Amino acid sequence: MARGSAVAWAALGPLLWGCALGLQGGMLYPQESPSRECKELDGLWSFRADFSDNRRRGFEEQWYRRPLWESGPTVDMPVPSSFNDISQDWRLRHFVGWVWYEREVILPERWTQDLRTRVVLRIGSAHSYAIVWVNGVDTLEHEGGYLPFEADISNLVQVGPLPSRLRITIAINNTLTPTTLPPGTIQYLTDTSKYPKGYFVQNTYFDFFNYAGLQRSVLLYTTPTTYIDDITVTTSVEQDSGLVNYQISVKGSNLFKLEVRLLDAENKVVANGTGTQGQLKIRGKGFDWPLLVKDFNLLRWLGANAFRTSHYPYAEEVMQMCDRYGIVVIDECPGVGLALPQFFNNVSLHHHMQVMEEVVRRDKNHPAVVMWSVANEPASHLESAGYYLKMVIAHTKSLDPSRPVTFVSNSNYAADKGAPYVDVICLNSYYSWYHDYGHLELIQLQLATQFENWYKKYQKPIIQSEYGAETIAGFHQDPPLMFTEEYQKSLLEQYHLGLDQKRRKYVVGELIWNFADFMTEQSPTRVLGNKKGIFTRQRQPKSAAFLLRERYWKIANETRYPHSVAKSQCLENSLFT
What we know:
By secondary structure, the protein is of the alpha+beta class. Helix content is 24%, strand content 27%. The strands form 7 sheets. It has a 7-stranded parallel β-sheet. The protein has a 6-stranded antiparallel β-sheet with strand order 3-2-4-10-7-8, with no helix packed on it. The protein has a 4-stranded antiparallel β-sheet with strand order 1-14-5-9. α11 (485-502) links the parallel β25 and β26.
C-alpha cells in the first residue's frame, strides 16, 4: 500500500470505528465462566397448535395464564426442532398460524436469592413471530426467525421466598406476510364448491420449505449485575504483526476494572490490555492451511473452502466451527422471496434493517464471515427495490464498515437497480436448465456474455453464487439427459470451462447450488424437494461430487504451489500436500 493510502486509512479509522458503535446492545454467545452459569432447556416441551378458525383461541382463552395442558390436549415436542416434521398429524405439516410451547423449570436457589445475579432467558430462534410469558407474565416479543433474542427475567424469579419453579410459555406464529422476512401472502379460496368456508393457503416465493417452531436451543444463563454486554473486534495487519482492536460495553455500573487477555489455541496469553477499548499487537507466525474436523468431513473431502448461508443465518455453533477450521462465509439474512412490488414498502424496509442489525450484532466477531448478503434474488429491476436495497446496504455498511456488502442477483445486468450499491456482484444463473433445455453446448457462450456484461457496466469483482442442475441419484443416461447424474456432471464441466476463463481476471469465487438435496413445498416440478445437491439428503455423493472434488483440490494446490505442475492432490486422508 502506498504511504498516502496508509495515511488516509489511518485518518479514516476513527470514523469507521465510530460508525460501528451505532449498533446498540449486545448478543454475546452464552458461555459458562467463573461468573456465568448456563442451564439448557433443550428436550421435550409441551406443545399445542391452535386449530381454531381464526387461530386466536389461545389468546382469547389466555392459555398462558395456567399450565398449557389445562387448556386442552398437548403433545411432546422436542426442542430444538421444526414441528412440521415431528408429528404424524398431517395437519401440522402445512400448519399456518399460532402454535404454543411450554416448559417448567426448577432454578438453583442461588439464582433466585442472590440479588447480585442477573437471570436471562435466551431463545436461539423462533420462526417467525414469538411472544414469551414467564409464569404468565408477558415478558418478550420478537419478530423474525433464525436469530437469537433474550430478556432479563431477574425481577420475575427473585420475588419472595424460593420461587424456584418457572413456567415458560412461548407462542409462535409462522404466517408470512408482505412485511415479514422472508415475505409471503395469505390467499383465501372462496369457491365453496371446491373449498370449505374460510379455507386459505400460504403463498411463498422461495424454494425451500417454510419450517417453523423453536428451531434452536433455549436456555437460561446468569451474569453478575455488573456485566460485559457486548464486545466488538476488528483486525488489521501492520508489517509482520497482527492488530486486534477491541471495544467492550459494560453495563450495570461505572465502577469497574477491566482487564483484557488474548489467548491462543493452547489458552496461552499472547497479548494483554486494559480498559473498554484498545489495541492488541500480535507477532505473526505465517499461514497454515486449516484442518477440518469430522463435522466438516464432506467439505474437507471436496476441498471446498467457502459457503453462503443461503437463505438465512445458520446456527451459531456452525459459525464457530467455520472460525475454527477456516471456512469462509458469506453471511446472508432471510431476505429471500422479495418477488412482488408490495414487498418493498417502508414497514418491510424498517424490519429488514432491524434484521440486519441482529445478524451483524450476532456474527460481527466471527473471522470466518467475510461478507454480508442482504437478500437473495430480489426483484431488483423495480425502482422501489433499488431504493430499498440502497437503504439496507447503506445501513449494513454503517453497522460494520469493515466488510463488503452484497445481495445475490438473477436480474438482467442493465436493469438491476441495486447493483450500483454493492461491493461484490453475486450472480445466480442456470444456463441449459431453466431455458435452452438440454443444450449444454450453449453454456460457455452464455456464461462469458454474462460475466463480460456485468463487469463492463459495474467494474466490480464477481462471484458465481449459484449454478447447477436437478439430479435424481441413480438416474443414468448417455448421451446425458436432464435429471440424470451424467447431465449434472456435464453441465458443471461446461460452467467450469467458462469460469476458468475469467477466474484469474475478475471472477473471485464460485459456489455450487447445492451442497445437498433439501426439502421444498410440494409442486409438480419438485420430486420430494430440490434435487440440485451434489450429495443426497442422506449425504451420499452423486457423480458430480467427484468432479467437484477433483476441481477444488486442483485449484487449492495451484494456489499453494503456483509455480509447480498443476495436479490434483485429493487422497482419501490427505490435506493440502
